[in-house]
Write a structure and sequence with these properties.
alpha/beta, ABC transporter transmembrane region fold, 10 strands
């Protein structure tokens, strides 16, 4: 239950809906009781258990006075309209009272629907923002499916758990069992009539169900859009962080989230009207049976005693509140507790890449980048479990990159090249040592300012389901079309973009799957060009391309590298001959460094790598 109180804290801003739910449920209960009380005094009078009252009591505001006044009114009605006419009048009044009661019940359901959906919307937004906030180290170790399930199916469970929790507390906590067998025992004829009349209710509810299906389909479509946005975020989290795109992605998610919320409220309002409508129709059946049952009591061939008729009516009235509401509510709370725990476990995950309070701003790169005695391990060794120790991915890295110089990192897979490049934009923080920018530790600088100075082009081109122009301008809202086209020309992308169906406004599909690998890579380069960063990180930017695409991409990269400080990771050694310095990495250490000619002439590991690629 503790998790549910934590969930309900999100509802503080929407407590007016909870209050309305309580008020409307209380009014519905009052009218429900009034409908039963309207039957019982009349049936007592009808069965002769109370003598007719021909004089109105003088003392009205007492129990005896109220009952006497009511019986006086019934006596007047019977004398004026006869017993059957009075019964018909009371039956119609009961239907009207039930209609009012169910109107309040529906309003209560509408209020709780808004309450729970707004709570789930805020929780969903909190989870999404947490996903954006968490460092890449967390995303590398977690399955996307778990996170997607948390923000979809777990949210669904929590939503209904909140609803049932509130309803159980503030509505009737215990529903009454339906004794159909008892009804058959008491009055089989009336039970048969009831069973014949109830299908009418089913036909009307079926009409509502058809409309509900359309609403439900729209909700599923919006839910799919939201899930696609989340999956896209998780796939492109590196690019989002590198280009300071968290705010942009959060705005996009908020739009999808709002549309899903509105669709859900519309669907559930239609869904929730089925219950009060069916209950109202049930009340109409009950009134009809009460009228027909009077014949069995008062007719010439009376087959039903007054007491039995009264008991049948009371039992039949209890068909309306289902017993299952309590058990369903409790079951939902139990299920929701597990989902709530998963939710709060995620929200409690600590972001290991934190910005210090009072972090220094930085508006440019002026001198050098320095890796000073850097050691890094993806998981720190637990203090009490030596068996879980992780070997450091980087060990004692010392490297200085002066402004305007290009440095290449080469080596076999797993040597630590990509990890080293990831330390520069603070995707990770060092386990030991320092990474310095202009002599200042990155951990003392604002994260957004650091990443604003850097452009990243990776082997896997991360693009979003949007237009070409919006992909190039990602992280830079409001940029001019001319600037987008200029970046595309530098990246050798303008020619093929102009040939697309809608040019720069062409939607490239999920992950850019409507484009070839080379085209996607050049759009990624154009995105980095538009950012115009003083520091450039290239991570295997051409290794997955064919020869022609590689030539175009490599030419674009040469244009982009001019005058920039760059850190280049490459397996194809032919692409890094131009670099000012080449560092050969092995098992997390730099074992050789120098220019291409120097390293090749030295005959070490770099020479062996070159020879394996038939490069001389």
């Amino acid at each position: 239950m503790r998790n549910f109180f934590r969930i309900l804290r999100y509802g503080k801003a929407y407590r007016r809906y909870a209050v309305l739910n309580v008020v409307f449920n209380l009014l519905a209960t009052v009218f429900h009781l009034a409908s039963l009380l309207l039957f019982i005094p009349f049936l007592r009078l009808l069965l002769g258990q109370v003598k007719p009252v021909h004089m109105r009591p003088a003392d009205l505001w007492t129990r005896e006075g109220l009952e006497g006044t009511f019986n006086w009114g019934l006596t007047q009605l019977i004398e004026h309209s006869g017993q059957m006419g009075a019964l018909l009048t009371i039956s119609i009044a009961v239907v009207v009272i039930f209609l009012i009661k169910n109107l309040f019940r529906y309003l209560a359901v509408v209020a709780i629907c808004s309450f729970r959906n707004y709570i789930v919307r805020d929780i969903r937004a909190a989870v999404y923002d947490k996903m954006l906030e968490l460092p890449l180290r967390y995303h590398s170790g977690e399955r996307k499916g778990d996170l997607l399930a948390l923000i979809t199916s777990d949210m669904h469970v929590i939503e209904y758990s909140v609803m049932y929790y509130i309803e159980m507390i503030f509505r009737e906590p215990v529903a009454i069992l339906l004794f159909l067998l008892s009804m058959i025992t008491i009055a089989p004829q009336l039970t048969l009539i009831a069973l014949l009349l109830l299908p009418v209710s089913g036909l009307l509810i079926g009409r509502i169900s058809k409309s509900l299906k359309r609403k439900s389909t729209r909700v599923q479509e919006k839910n799919a859009d939201l899930l696609a946005r989340v999956e896209e975020t998780l796939t492109g989290i590196r690019v989002i962080k590198a280009f300071n795109g968290e705010a942009d992605m959060s705005r996009r998610f908020a739009r999808e989230n709002e549309m899903l919320t509105r669709s859900s409220i519309a669907m559930l309002n239609r869904q929730d009207i089925a219950s009060p409508l069916s209950e109202t129709l049930g009340a109409a059946v009950m009134a009809t049976i009460a009228y027909l049952g009077g014949y069995y009591v008062l007719g010439p061939d009376a087959t039903l005693t007054g007491d039995s008729f009264l008991g049948f009516i009371i039992i039949f009235s209890q068909l309306l509140p289902p017993l299952k509401s309590f058990s369903q509510g409790y079951s939902a709370i139990v299920r929701g507790s597990a989902s709530g725990q998963r939710l709060f476990d995620l929200l409690a995950v600590e972001n290991t890449v934190k910005e210090k309070p009072g972090a220094k701003p930085i508006d440019g790169f002026h001198d050098r980048i320095e890796f000073r005695d850097v050691t890094f391990a993806y998981e720190a060794a637990p203090k009490d479990t030596a068996s879980r120790e992780r070997k450091a991915v980087l060990q004692d890295i010392r490297l200085t990159i002066p402004k305007g110089r290009s440095v290449a990192l080469v080596g076999t897979s797993g040597s630590g090249k990509t990890t080293m490049a990831g330390l520069l934009p603070r995707f990770f923080d060092v386990s030991d040592g320092q990474v310095l920018l202009d002599g200042v530790d990155l951990r003392d600088l604002r994260i957004n300012d650091i990443r604003a100075l850097m452009g990243i082009v990776t082997q896997d081109s991360i693009l979003f389901n949007d237009t070409v122009a919006n992909n190039i301008a990602f992280g830079a809202p409001g940029v001019a079309q001319a600037d987008i086209e200029r970046a595309a020309r530098i990246a050798n992308a303008h020619e093929f973009i102009a040939q697309l169906e809608d040019g720069y406004q062409t939607n490239i599909g999920d992950g850019g799957n409507r484009l070839s690998g080379g085209q996607k890579q050049r759009i990624s380069i154009a995105r980095a060009v538009l950012k115009n960063p003083p520091i450039l990180i290239l991570d295997e930017a051409t290794s997955a391309l064919d020869t022609e695409s590689e030539r175009l991409v490599q030419d674009a990269l040469y244009k982009m590298l001019e005058g920039r400080t760059s850190l280049v990771i490459a397996h194809r050694l032919s692409t890094i001959q131009h670099c000012d310095e080449i560092c050969v990495m092995q098992q997390g250490r730099i074992i050789e460094r120098g220019t291409h000619n120097e390293l090749y002439a030295a005959g070490g590991q770099y020479r062996r790598l070159c020879d394996m690629q038939a490069f001389a």
